[in-house]
Amino acid sequence: MDLVLLFFIFVLAAFLGLELIAKVPSQLHTPLMSGSNAISGITIVGALIATGASEGGSIGMVLGFLALVFATINVVGGYLVTDRMLQMFKKKGK
Amino acid sequence: MDFQNLINLAYVIAATLFVFGIKMLGSADTARRGNLISGVGMLIAVVVTLLDQSILDFKWIVAGLILGSLIGGIAARVVKMTSMPELVALFNGFGGLASLLVAWTEFEKIKTYGWSAYSQLMGTPSFFSSFVIYLAMLIGGITFTGSLYAYGKLSGRVSGQAKVYAGQKMINALALIAILAIGVAFTWSGDLELASTLFLSGVGLALLFGIMGVMPIGGGDMPVIISLLNSFSGLAASAAGFVIGNNVLIVAGCLVGASGLILTAIMCKAMNRSLGNVLFSGFGATSQSSGDEDDREPKAISTQDAFYVLEAANSVVFIPGYGMAVAQAQHVVKELGELLEENGAEVNFAIHPVAGRMPGHMNVLLAEADVPYEQLVEMDNINPIMPTVDVAVVIGANDVVNPAAADDETSPIYGMPIIEAHKAKTVFILKRGQGKGFSGLVNKLFVMDNSRMIYGDAKSTISDLVNELKG
Question: Which helix or strand (DSSP H or E) is residue B429 part of?
């Protein structure tokens, strides 16, 4: 993989991120935080590769498995709890 | 190779969905759909990864996915809304830990294959691999223990007070230098034996530093540190993306890192303090008594008398703070608001951006109690009408209504934007006791002529008022 290309992507993503949420009503700060927190669980992809590609019984395998469990908690829990919060917000106003 | 391209294409789609998801999370009408869209992106990323040919053994993967889903799913279902800050902190910490473990797994791979074979496999110079492995480990580790410690503070398992001790800054600085020095040595060491020792010391120090960094941060500053740790968990994922050369991790992690930083900046601005000041000053640990000592005593009022004033009021503004969350008073507050409305008063809730322990804390609590969205007014919109308000009811808030922030240049919180409760015709302050607020400052609002204190548990005080109104 071309390193410069990876950095290029990183920098562009940073600017995109800064632009995306420059103006968010304070009412949504918590859901935004917990929703983006769920996205940071994307490290689950790394955990999947690490678990699947390691040989059984090795230290790498054990570490990968733990990474997978924690990343999955982050992803599943993060999305569900964000949805629960937003559901509450949605209910009223109608 | 074509198959690999398809996988990468799917990752691009996932990243796009994340971008749309975050964008939509920023607006009330689309937020829920935005969360769903970003969830679909995550699902695509996971499913596509499972199709990757390098995955040989699905047994443990299935077990890990099921176990993680169960724990996360149950925790998300059963948690009370009042415990939301600590749960978010906990999930955040797990994300950081996962990134640390991914980096560690890669290092174990290097130990198995040796540097040269590994860098041939990845197509990257070995110093780069070791650099990003260390970085992902470091940020992930700090995020993990930092969030865990924040979780402890938020849930009351450890004291929420800022903890400072002599030479704390020096010790933290030394720890940071040690972490960086080990990082440099790890990056350039070719010897696997040595690298292994360095890496493990790095893990230990990173975990320790997460705790040491959060230690001097007190309760009222939690919204800042929570946002910052949120940003870190994204950066850790992004660094892990560099480790395994995966675009979707880099993009998604970086998006989270950037959005977390913005939120951190918003929180700092709402307190008129720099991030450096929040992180290093140990604010609130030392109780400074500043400015001119006011010798006026706060005047108390009984709930009975408070009821007469409220009954006659045409407009009432509630100003909630962390004390409302502690007393879990949001439901009775909502009931009181409804009764006052039936009584003909205009009722609003004034929300300070840093009220509570996480960004948007008060909004979540009041939403849970079903307070209509239109009644939640942001600070900048409520202040102009404050002089026309008959009664401002401060519920467990302190620094965010301290007029010293506006007019006392010697005050440590001078310049912090506040909700101008003191401009209302009458101010009721619900407070547990006569203690000081988080900043340790004497609140001048409490001794002003138009202020009356109602001591006692906020929930029972408001329940009493509700009963009086129901009459």
Answer: strand B426-431
Helix segments in B26-167, DSSP class H:
31-50, 59-78, 84-113, 115-122, 126-155
Give the helix ranges, DSSP H, for B215-246.
222-244
ipTM for the predicted complex: 0.93
Q: Provide the whole-model pTM.
A: 0.89
Among B141, B136, B143, B137, smallest CA distance to B225 is for B143
Interatomic CA distance for residues B102 and A66, integer angstroms: 9
CA pair distance A46, A43, nearest whole angstrom: 5
Taking Cα atoms as reference points, which of B149, B257, B230 lies closest to residue A37? Answer: B230
Tell me B449's DSSP state. Answer: T
- The answer to the question of residue A7 being in a domain is no
Cα–Cα separations (whole angstroms), residue A2 to A6, A42, B142: 7, 21, 29
In a domain, A43, yes or no: yes
Q: Which residues have CB under 8 Å from B155's CB, separation 6+?
A: B83, B86
Count other Cβ atoms within 10 Å, centred on residue B409: 8
Positive or negative, the CA dihedral B356, B219, B213, B416 is: positive
* Listed residue (B41, B192, B327) closest to A42, CA to CA: B41
Is A4 part of a structural domain of the chain?
A: no
* Residue from A2, A15, A45 to probe the interface with B (highest B Cβ count within 10 Å): A45
Print the domain residue range for A61: 25-91
CB neighbourhood size of B166 (10 A) = 7
Contact indicator for B230, A37 with CB cutoff of 8 Å: yes
Is A85 close to B372, i.e. CB distance below 8 A?
no
Q: Which residues of B are catalytic?
A: 399
Q: What do you get for the CA distance between the two ends of chain A, in Å? A: 51
A74 falls within a domain: yes
- Number of domains chain A is built from: 1
| pLDDT, tens digit (0-9, with 9 covering 90-100), for A60-87 | 889 999 999 999 999 999 999 999 989 8
Average pLDDT per consecutive 10 residues, chain B (471 residues; last block may be shorter): 83 94 89 95 94 78 94 92 88 96 92 84 85 96 96 85 83 92 89 90 96 86 91 96 91 94 90 84 57 68 89 92 88 93 92 88 89 87 92 89 84 86 91 71 84 89 89 76
Query: Residues, chain B, total?
Result: 471
Of A40, A53, A67, the CB nearest to B256: A40
Q: Do A36 and B260 touch (CB under 8 A)?
A: yes
